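S.,

Sequence below, as promised.
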Amino acid sequence: TPTPMTISTCMYWTGMDPKTLEKVHVPYTYNEKKLLKNEVFRHLKPQYINRKR
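The prediction came back faster than expected:
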């Protein structure tokens, strides 16, 4: 979770961007967070390290 008293906390809590009031997707469930984490850190997995981009 984000640090308290930041814009990211506001976005996480409300699900909206406080500047534009647009809806922001926030992964709340464990499965959504796990999928997002896997995509973010995919480049660190051994099968992707030597892969050409």
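The first helix runs from residue 7 to 14.

Coffee later?
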